């Protein structure tokens, strides 16, 4: 992906080390599943953690959602501190009761889970185990990670002559993976962040490279970091899922660390990014609706940061730099979707403060504006061109803006593609941009765009063939207010009588985040076993731009529920399965709409599968002592100060609306160490739901009355987003 700040902005401005909000950040596992490719977690010089899609810039988000990439697990003898959220803070009796129920019921599924596990391992070995980790080209050198070791090779010599710089295991971290890597401009230093899957916080270790690399410094609780100069590193400190302080540390003879920026508003999250040409380091302070950027001139890294544009409510912007001019990606102007803006002065003619003083938003010049209902997925700046990856009506497009010919070329990507990922940090002056395309059932396939040839190139055929027996269908469901809601459907081409086939529906619908539609082995397994997969792109998500999110948050949250109901109803109407064979899957904040539908329309489903679900919106938003409640008010509203908001949240909150009726069966996975979705709320939700189902069965009193299974699996290990392949497989 390109830069952290942009990805955070593009993913709904909910920033986090896993996900921009109580569920971010990306991401990440991704909504619905943590089982993903076993890719080494070396992020390009511009990538963050949870990244969108396969998640977020890593995405480090303070939000409730999954979009996290999987890292490489590194074992050592030292024990890592786990989250402070322990069972001491939980209703012990409820937790003990649920654990006992799980221990009693899980053996029933032993044979089934054994078969599924073997199949997933087979698919994993076939499609992802041998996929190579991302490479970082830095001048004449290439850096990469494999199995917890950092390698360096000469770009022209091939990787057969690569040598190990150091092993993460030797650094003494237990069950840690590499989350982020940044290399100093002169390649004398490498900064890496190491993270445990049981904790939200990462540790930044700075290595002095050479024939025998040594640890120069270790900084705990770091979120993002960038080199401003050869020996000057800026970083953000993370505390209670928040990043509000920026520090500068130096590695010269006069070593020092000092605070350079503090964000006072609890709604804002701070991260760092270097422009593609490394001329400026940007300090990005973002809420979910508003942003503000400060620039550090990398030629003068000790000077105070300069403000680009003071924050204006509802205005989002991000900065890039090319040939002495600032390029701004912003929502300024109508419609309030992303636009590319050029400032009209040249930085080298005047000093930075004077330049910025004359470059306020009133002097911004429009370069390119997105079409209506178009989602800007990613954005990358090159020396003479800019590439935008867009999503419109469910299809992916690549738009190339030439600064030389002042033209825009739009290329429609293959129709089967649902997700894309830029290969790590292409160099600013490169003539080719490489990226991968995938879908839930199509493994990543490599493509390239050549600026010289001005065309798209499909890379050499992979050893593993692209799936050919899966059919992709795109539908539009008419919601309650006549809005058309996109649905993406996958099914086996050879399936007969689709109305009899089991259907798994996916939903998220929050924070302006798209449903994660990257490749997952378990999705392909389901297709092979004649399941139908449907992805409902409801309002509240970001699939059709920023307005799509605005139409599904705060006082519009019920629109997402109406959208979901319309989508499932249409699927049944056109012959994709039927209610008694339909299951609904959601994770994190997706649990709000899934749980709400379970209350209002239980007859549409036979089963519901939730992962770390957010199911008690009202009580959570009433507790301002929780780390993310204040910044989440821009998504859900503030029930403490607005009685109308309180009543509105209460009208759809899953926990608040449980009642005696015939519910579908429910399977929930939760985590003891989850700092974003407290386990207490999930335990209480399960107890109340189970009681309502039993009350209904006892009241109706019919012989053979069906009682749903309501099962909770509380994982002692793992946290809201990150998980090793082995842990995900067992789960």
Model description:
Strands 30-31-33-32-34-35-36-37 form an eight-stranded mixed β-sheet, sandwiched between helices. Helix content is 19%, strand content 32%. By secondary structure, the protein is α+β, with helices and mostly antiparallel strands. It is built from 13 helices and 37 strands. Among the domains are: 135-258, 7 Propeller (Methylamine Dehydrogenase, Chain H); 467-702 and 709-720, Alpha/Beta hydrolase fold, catalytic domain (Rossmann fold), CATH 3.40.50.1820. The protein is globular, with a radius of gyration of 25 Å. Residues 518-694 form the Peptidase S9 prolyl oligopeptidase catalytic domain. GO terms for molecular function: serine-type endopeptidase activity. Its main location: cytoplasm. Keywords: Cytoplasm, Hydrolase, Protease, Serine protease.
Largest sheet: 8 strands, mixed
Number of helices: 13
- Between the first and last Cα atoms, what is the distance in angstroms? 28 Å
- Please give the order of strands in the largest beta sheet: 30-31-33-32-34-35-36-37
The top-level CATH class of one domain is Alpha Beta
* Shape, per Cα inertia axes: globular
Question: Topology, pairings included?
Answer:
Elements: H1 4-10, E1 19-22, E2 62-63, H2 92-105, H3 110-127, E3 136-138, E4 141-146, E5 149-154, E6 163-167, E7 176-183, E8 189-196, E9 202-208, E10 214-229, E11 232-239, E12 242-250, E13 257-262, E14 269-274, E15 280-286, E16 291-297, E17 306-307, E18 317-322, E19 325-330, E20 339-342, H4 352-357, E21 365-369, E22 374-381, E23 385-392, E24 395-402, E25 407-412, E26 419-422, E27 432-439, E28 442-450, E29 455-458, E30 470-478, E31 484-492, E32 503-506, H5 521-528, E33 532-536, H6 546-550, H7 557-573, E34 582-587, H8 590-600, E35 607-611, H9 617-621, H10 629-636, H11 643-652, E36 665-671, H12 679-700, E37 710-715, H13 725-730
Parallel strand pairs: 1-2, 32-33, 32-34, 34-35, 35-36, 36-37
Antiparallel strand pairs: 3-4, 4-5, 5-6, 7-8, 8-9, 9-10, 10-11, 11-12, 12-13, 14-15, 15-16, 16-17, 18-19, 19-20, 20-21, 22-23, 23-24, 24-25, 26-27, 27-28, 28-29, 30-31, 31-33
């Amino acid at each position: 992906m390109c830069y952290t700040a942009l990805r955070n902005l593009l993913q709904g401005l909910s920033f986090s080390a896993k996900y921009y909000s109580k569920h971010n950040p990306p991401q990440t596992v991704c909504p619905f599943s943590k089982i993903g490719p076993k890719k080494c977690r070396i992020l390009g010089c511009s990538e963050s953690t949870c990244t969108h899609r396969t998640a977020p810039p890593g995405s480090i988000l303070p939000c409730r959602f999954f979009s996290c990439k999987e890292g490489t697990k590194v074992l050592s003898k030292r024990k890592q501190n786990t989250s402070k959220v322990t069972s001491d803070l939980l209703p012990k009796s409820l937790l003990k009761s649920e654990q006992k129920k799980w221990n009693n019921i899980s053996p029933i599924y032993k044979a089934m889970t054994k078969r599924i596990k073997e199949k997933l391992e087979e698919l994993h070995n076939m499609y992802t185990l041998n996929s190579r980790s991302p490479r970082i080209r830095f001048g004449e050198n290439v850096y990469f990670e494999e199995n917890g070791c950092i390698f360096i090779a000469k770009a022209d010599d091939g990787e057969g002559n690569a040598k190990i710089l150091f092993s993460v295991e030797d650094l003494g971290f237990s069950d840690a993976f590499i989350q982020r890597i940044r290399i100093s401009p002169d390649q004398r230093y490498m900064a890496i962040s190491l993270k445990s899957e049981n904790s939200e916080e990462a540790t930044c270790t700075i290595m002095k490279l050479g024939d025998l690399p040594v640890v120069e410094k270790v900084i705990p609780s770091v979120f993002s970091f960038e080199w401003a100069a050869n020996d000057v590193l800026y970083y953000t400190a993370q505390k209670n899922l928040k990043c509000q302080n920026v520090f500068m540390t130096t590695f010269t003879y006069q070593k020092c660390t000092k605070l350079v920026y503090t964000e006072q508003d609890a709604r804002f999250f701070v991260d760092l990014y270097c422009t593609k040409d490394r001329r400026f380091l940007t300090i990005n302070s973002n809420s979910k609706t508003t942003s503000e950027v400060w620039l550090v001139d990398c030629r003068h890294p000790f000077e105070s940061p300069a403000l680009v544009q003071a924050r204006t409510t509802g205005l989002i912007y991000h900065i890039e730099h090319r040939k002495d001019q600032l390029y701004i990606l912003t929502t300024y102007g109508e419609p309030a979707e992303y636009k590319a803006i050029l400032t009209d002065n040249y930085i080298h003619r005047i000093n930075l403060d004077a330049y910025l003083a004359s470059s306020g938003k009133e002097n911004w010049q429009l370069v390119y504006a997105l079409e209506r209902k178009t989602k800007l997925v990613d954005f990358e700046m090159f020396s003479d061109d800019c590439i935008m990856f867009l999503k419109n009506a469910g299809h992916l497009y690549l738009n190339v803006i030439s600064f030389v010919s002042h033209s825009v070329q739009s290329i429609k990507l293959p129709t089967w593609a649902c997700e894309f990922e830029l290969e790590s940090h292409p160099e600013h002056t490169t003539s080719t941009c490489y990226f991968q395309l995938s879908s839930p059932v199509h493994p990543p396939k490599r493509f390239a765009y050549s600026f010289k040839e001005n065309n798209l190139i499909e890379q050499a055929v992979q050893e593993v063939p692209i799936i050919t027996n899966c059919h992709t269908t795109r539908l539009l469901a008419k919601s309650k207010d006549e809005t058309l809601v996109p649905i993406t459907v996958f099914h086996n081409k050879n399936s007969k009588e689709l109305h009899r086939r089991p259907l798994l529906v996916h939903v998220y619908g929050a924070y302006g985040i798209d449903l994660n539609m990257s490749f997952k082995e378990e999705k392909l397994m389901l297709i092979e076993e004649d399941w139908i997969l449907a992805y409902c792109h409801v309002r509240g998500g970001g699939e059709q731009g920023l307005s799509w999110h605005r139409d599904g948050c705060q006082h519009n949250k019920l629109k997402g529920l109406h959208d979901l109901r319309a989508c499932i109803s249409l699927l049944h109407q056109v012959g994709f399965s039927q209610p008694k064979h339909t299951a609904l899957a959601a994770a994190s904040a997706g649990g709000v709409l899934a749980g709400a539908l379970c209350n209002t329309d239980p007859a549409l489903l036979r089963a519901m599968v939730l992962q770390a679900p957010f199911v008690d919106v009202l009580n959570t938003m009433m507790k301002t002592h929780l780390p993310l409640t204040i910044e989440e008010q821009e998504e859900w509203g503030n029930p403490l100060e607005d009685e109308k908001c309180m009543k509105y949240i209460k009208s759809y909150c899953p926990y608040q609306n449980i009642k005696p009726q015939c519910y579908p069966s429910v399977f929930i996975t939760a985590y003891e160490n989850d700092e974003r979705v407290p386990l207490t709320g999930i335990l209480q939700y399960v107890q109340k739901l189970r009681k309502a189902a039993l009350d209904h069965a006892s009241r109706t009193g019919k012989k053979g009355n069906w009682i749903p299974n309501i099962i909770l699996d509380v994982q002692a290990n793992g946290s809201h987003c990150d998980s090793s392949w082995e842990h995900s497989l067992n789960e």
